[in-house]
User: Which sequence fits this backbone?
């Protein structure tokens, strides 16, 4: 791979000084003149009809300036549900945390007090929490038409993928393995709680949002409020994480706007941490039934998956269960049922379909390898994907290198125990691994570059930088493409009045989509510079790129293999990860410093998903029990092992300098790697996430 | 308190936005919450403030002194984003009432760099890529500062123990440990050192 001047060199974030001095201005840090504070009143019931809302006491509380309920606000939040009409305030309420009212007042204590003074008369309705229960004929109906959410064609049928003939594949097998797995609802739990500040100036609305995509947020706010796009401005300068739950315009953006309108003053709406856990969304919980056929020589003949995803009462997310793409197999059938339940809403969390799907699939694949007395790495090398869905060539594929080089760095042969659970204990060590892939799409985005007479290049991109170092990545691509040092690049970001359209920072697309637009704008600017020469005085040279590259007939994917060693205390059920290697093919790595951080973070998050996290519900009352950081037991400093990163930089012909997707692949196989390591240590398999101490002690009992 | 009547509140910004309205008028000034006067020193500067009994330290820092570097991540003593130094020791400023602060000295992230020079911890956080989204960073820095006060040459394990009350959901823990060790001059090749 050729060496470049800027791209590929470890580079500190261009905004790092702000991030370490407390001067990075996050949305919640803003205070506007005359700004009010808002709080939301939420349903304490998992399912109930609202009979009556009495606002009189709340309205009489001095300092209360505006109150919204369904009565005076019937806005439909378009991105809140892709199948049904989801209002900002719904009746019936369908989960504990569904919004009932929002109050703006002179300070947050008054707003909070006012929400407590709102009297609501509820008629509790029957509720259902688990997807398979929700599909029974006597289950309470959560949305009109039934609890199986319509598929992409609008039919009440599961989402189905097929190739070959599954029955034929199962008949061709020497062994058929059947197993079931489940995964939990877990929260994105980004450190920055949800916040929006809305301000009307004349007929124009500015929303200071905490968003992963200012362009989407902008379009959707205008759509949902019936405004023209030019009447809306969205600003997000620094952003404290989202991992998929700040992709779009959210109900709190719209509520803040409507409260501000009613009060005639700017409004800051803040969510509490508990609200963030129960009332936004997290990863969909799943139930997975796998059936896999295999020949004596280890060749896969059939993979069948019947899955159920709990979507909560609104269809905000896709509900997919991914992973089968990583195997070559002639006969495949997958049917996933996205189901309404009366739990918290489920939608995107880092690699939405994958970590849970790969956990189930890779657990069973691991079992199969043991049964056939094959090394799990060898089994995967034999059966790994060569063409996407056995059909479409990949633009580049470094999966084999991820497996081989990852195994080598991990010292797989030394750490993996061919006889699981055979160590004497009570502390038992074991090694496990998993692999995955994630689409590295190319697509629509824009960039504008202005060159001034001082030789500064002002690069306008609609990114917010959710923590991925997107601004720095854009600056490196610009510097490389323009052939100038990084110091001559000025990134202008996070404001729809100053930035062109950008794809949201979701789907791990910023480098490949917006980075591509930056590269193309730079090409144009260089051409103009050659023709016209340097601008003089206050003149500028301006280049604009609206790019939407397509690559028909090929599939562009990133690949990944993770390896984990654990130590299980078989007396206490405690698991400690003692060694971890993450091998990634993301094409050319634009910034090895920040990319390595992303891998370390994603892998660590996956360890937490494997071992700790679950939003538990009380079955009798439908109440969430573990909202918050302690309840979820997210990973801490002490839980985290050193994550060693191995880069497999494939020669990728497309995308900016051959860069492929990175952010989401980092979590995909981590859950499976940890689960498989636990099996290797104790010789017993826990099939339900998270793999908590009680479950480990349960399988050992 | 005058009787509240319904009227149309919104002017046409498009169909489908508003049905009714909840007008609020004729209100008195808010009933005063109990207040006390406190004297505190923040980053070396003395302040005399009148605070409501229900205000937390982080609220006073952010909303009344404009020091927004300390973040509110959970407001319930779980995440550590609001960590500040109270008389040299790290505390969650969301879990301290402002009225308790009378006569105390507080240091926030804004006080770390002096005369435009960054603290070695800040330099190390930049060089070793501590912040991802950055929302937990101020708290991580202040916990690290407190740790180095009491243990100037910590091991990696001591850093993890000393900072375990600071959650980073980007989970950049390796980098934070590496940064603190680098600032303390105890970074070794196998203790969080970059392999890439």
Assistant:
């Amino acid at each position: 791979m050729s060496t470049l001047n800027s791209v590929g060199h470890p580079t500190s974030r261009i905004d790092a000084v702000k991030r370490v001095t407390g001067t990075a201005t996050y949305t919640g840090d803003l205070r506007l003149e005359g700004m009010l504070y808002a709080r939301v009143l939420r349903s304490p019931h998992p399912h109930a009809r609202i009979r009556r809302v009495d606002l009189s006491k709340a309205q009489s509380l001095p300092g209360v300036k505006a109150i919204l309920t369904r009565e005076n606000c019937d806005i439909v939040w378009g991105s809140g549900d892709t199948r049904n009409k989801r209002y900002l305030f719904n009746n019936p309420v369908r989960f504990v945390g569904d919004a009932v009212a929002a109050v703006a007042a002179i300070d947050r204590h008054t707003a909070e007090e006012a929400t407590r003074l709102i009297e609501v008369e509820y008629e509790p309705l029957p509720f259902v929490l688990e997807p398979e229960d929700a599909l029974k004929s006597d289950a309470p109906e959560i949305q009109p038409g039934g609890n199986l959410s319509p598929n992409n064609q609008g039919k009440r049928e599961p989402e189905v993928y097929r190739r070959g003939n599954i029955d034929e594949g199962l008949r061709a097998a020497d062994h058929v393995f059947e197993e079931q797995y489940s995964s939990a609802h877990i929260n994105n739990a980004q450190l920055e709680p949800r916040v929006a500040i809305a301000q009307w100036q004349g007929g124009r609305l500015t929303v200071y949002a905490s968003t992963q995509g200012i362009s989407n947020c902008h379009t959707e706010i205008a759509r949902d409020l019936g405004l023209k796009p030019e009447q809306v401005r969205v600003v997000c300068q620094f952003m404290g994480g989202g991992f998929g739950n700040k992709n779009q315009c959210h109900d709190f953006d719209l509520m803040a706007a409507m409260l501000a309108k009613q009060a005639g003053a700017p409004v800051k709406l803040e969510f509490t941490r508990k609200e963030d856990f129960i009332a936004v969304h997290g990863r969909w919980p799943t139930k997975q039934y796998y059936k896999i056929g295999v020949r004596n020589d280890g060749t896969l003949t059939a993979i069948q998956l019947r899955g159920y995803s709990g979507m909560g009462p609104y269809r905000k997310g896709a509900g997919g269960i991914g992973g089968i793409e990583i195997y070559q197999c002639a006969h495949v059938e997958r049917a996933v049922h996205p189901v309404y339940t009366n739990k918290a809403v489920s939608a995107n969390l880092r690699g939405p379909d994958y970590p849970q799907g790969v956990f189930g699939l890779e657990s069973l694949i691991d079992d199969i390898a043991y049964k056939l007395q094959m090394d799990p790495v060898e089994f995967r090398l034999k059966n790994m994907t060569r063409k996407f869905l056995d059909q479409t060539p990949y633009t580049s594929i470094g999966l084999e290198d991820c497996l081989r080089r990852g195994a080598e760095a991990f010292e797989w042969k030394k750490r993996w125990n061919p006889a699981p659970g055979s160590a004497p204990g009570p502390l038992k060590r074991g090694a496990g691994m998993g692999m995955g892939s994630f689409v590295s799409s190319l697509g629509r985005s824009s960039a504008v570059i202005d060159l001034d007479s001082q030789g500064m290049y002002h690069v306008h991109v609609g990114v917010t930088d959710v923590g991925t170092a997107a601004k720095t990545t854009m600056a490196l691509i610009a510097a490389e493409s323009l052939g100038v040092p990084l110091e001559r690049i000025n990134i202008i970001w996070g404001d729809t009045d100053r930035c062109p359209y950008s794809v949201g920072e979701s789907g791990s697309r910023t480098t490949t989509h917006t980075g591509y637009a930056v590269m193309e704008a730079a090409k144009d600017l260089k051409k103009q510079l050659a023709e016209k020469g340097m601008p003089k005085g206050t003149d500028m040279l301006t280049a604009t790129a609206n790019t939407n590259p397509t690559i028909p007939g090929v599939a562009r994917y990133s690949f990944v293999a993770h390896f984990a060693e654990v130590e299980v205390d078989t007396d206490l059920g405690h698991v400690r990860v003692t060694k971890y290697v993450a091998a990634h093919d993301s094409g050319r790595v634009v910034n090895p410093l920040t990319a390595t951080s992303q891998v370390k973070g994603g892998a660590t998050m996956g360890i937490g998903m494997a071992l700790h996290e679950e939003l538990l519900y009380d079955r009798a009352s439908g109440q969430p029990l573990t909202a918050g950081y302690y309840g979820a037991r997210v990973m801490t400093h002490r839980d985290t092992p050193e994550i060693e990163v191995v880069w497999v930089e494939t020669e990728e012909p497309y995308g900016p300098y051959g860069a492929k997707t990175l952010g989401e692949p980092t979590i995909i196989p981590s859950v499976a790697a940890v689960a498989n390591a636990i099996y290797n240590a104790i010789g017993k398999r826990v099939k339900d996430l998270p793999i908590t101490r009680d479950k480990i002690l349960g399988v050992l009992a | 308190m005058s009787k509240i009547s319904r009227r149309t509140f919104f002017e046409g910004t498009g169909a489908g936005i508003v049905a009714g309205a909840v007008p609020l008028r004729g209100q008195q000034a808010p009933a005063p919450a109990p207040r006390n006067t406190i004297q505190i020193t923040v980053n070396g500067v003395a302040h005399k403030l009148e605070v409501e009994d229900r205000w937390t330290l982080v609220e006073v820092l952010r909303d009344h002194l404009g020091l927004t570097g300390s973040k509110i991540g959970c407001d319930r003593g779980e995440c550590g984003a609001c960590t500040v130094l109270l008389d040299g020791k790290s505390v969650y400023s969301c879990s301290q009432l402002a009225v308790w602060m009378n006569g105390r000295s507080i240091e926030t992230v804004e006080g770390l760099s002096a005369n435009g020079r960054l603290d070695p911890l800040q330099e190390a956080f930049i060089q070793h890529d501590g912040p991802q989204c950055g929302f937990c960073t101020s708290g991580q820095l202040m916990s690290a500062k407190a740790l180095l006060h009491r243990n100037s040459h910590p091991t990696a394990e001591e850093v993890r123990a000393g900072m375990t009350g600071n959650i980073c959901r980007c989970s950049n823990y390796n980098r934070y440990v590496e940064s603190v060790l680098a600032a303390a001059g105890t970074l070794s090749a196998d203790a969080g050192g970059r392999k890439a």
User: Anything to note?
Assistant: The first helix of chain A runs from residue 16 to 21. Residues 282-441+553-700 of chain A form a domain with the Aldehyde Oxidoreductase; domain 4 fold (CATH 3.30.365.10). Chain A touches chain B through 88 residues (CB under 8 Å). DSSP finds 18 helices and 26 strands in chain A.
